[in-house]
Write a structure and sequence with these properties.
About 40% of the residues lie in helices and about 15% in strands. It is of the alpha/beta class and about 300 residues long. It has two domains: about 190 residues, Nucleotidyltransferase, domain 5 (2-Layer Sandwich), CATH 3.30.420.10; about 80 residues, no CATH class. α4 crosses α9. The longest helix has 19 residues.
Length: about 300
């Protein structure tokens, strides 16, 4: 799977897709939706769709696709090659949500939780297929949140399309199993070949499954926690696992906000305000010369004197 479009800048989300088979533009089609990597604290979450003509459902079943979680990595890779090779009647598309996108979305002022992010990714992929000319008439989805509410939401968003939302849909409908395989293969490859934008030297890539309960993942998180700048963008810093480690092991910082004047809040905690650290008019104790930290240069951040 070619992920160069995402690897070019893995700090933002990316959409990848196969060519649309001509038959999918002329015949009624079914479309499956599933995701991979919802729970891990490391790496992206990937939403995938797979579609084919309704008349080709048996052909899809004959590819012997199955829920990606029941397959080995080698089996998933082989099945994806089969799906990608069936270009005459099968198409797919992916929405890769970077860890940075997930965390900044969840922590923005207007709360945007993981369910809403997932729903929007799924809706965006269905709309993408429609915009590409796919004659979608049936949609099968693995549920996120209450199945009935999700089904009603999708049915209203796409009138005229029969929507079926079921728990464990990836084990019930081959077209969802196919989407599950596409999503899982993409996530596995993205994690395995992750390019760290941060200058971390030789990075230990033995980070386990990426799930919070994995001892290898916990060990990796402790090893690569910077006490001032936190984690590389490979980590979903909005996850409670990462937050707990930051709270216990990182340098305490008071952020200015609307609820309390920053300087007063910092003084109360016997701490230095973050904005005073960044401002050009620094306190006397911070006026000595220093090079700009890579955290700011990598993100193209600059100091400002006023808003």
């Amino acid at each position: 799977m070619d992920l160069s479009g995402f690897e070019a800048d893995n700090s933002v989300s990316c959409r990848l897709s196969s060519p649309v088979p001509e038959v999918c533009k002329t015949e009624d089609c079914c479309l499956g939706i599933d995701e991979a990597g919802r729970g891990p604290v490391l790496g992206p979450m990937v939403y995938g769709i797979c579609f084919c003509p309704i008349s080709k459902k048996e052909d899809m079943k004959n590819l012997k696709v199955a829920d990606s979680k029941t397959l080995t990595e080698a089996q998933r890779d082989n099945l994806f090659l089969m799906l990608d090779g069936a270009k005459s009647f099968v198409g797919w598309a992916l929405q890769i949500l970077s860890p940075n996108t997930i965390s900044t979305s969840m922590l923005q002022r207007a709360k945007y939780n993981l369910n809403a992010l997932s729903h929007d990714a799924a809706i965006g992929l269905v709309q993408f297929a429609l915009d590409c000319g796919v004659q979608v008439k049936e949609v099968f989805v693995d549920t996120v949140g209450p199945a009935e509410k999700y089904q009603d939401k999708l049915s209203k968003r796409f009138p005229g399309i029969e929507v079926t939302v079921r728990p464990k849909a990836d084990s019930l409908f081959p077209i969802v199993s196919a989407a599950s395989i596409c999503a899982k293969v993409a996530r596995d490859h993205a994690v395995k070949s992750w390019k760290f934008a941060e200058n971390l030297g030789e990075v230990d890539t033995d980070y386990g499954s990426g799930y919070p309960g994995d001892p290898k993942t916990k060990s990796w998180l402790q090893k690569y926690l910077d006490p001032v700048f936190g984690y590389p963008q490979f980590v979903r810093f909005s996850w409670s696992t990462a937050q707990t480690l930051l709270d216990s092991k990182a340098v305490p910082v008071h952020w200015d906000d609307d609820e309390e004047d920053g300087a007063k809040g910092a003084a109360r905690q016997n701490n230095t305000s973050m904005l005073s650290y960044l401002s050009r008019n620094k306190p006397d104790e911070l006026t000595h010369s220093r090079d700009t930290h890579r955290f700011f240069t990598e993100r193209k951040l600059q100091s400002i004197s006023n808003l």
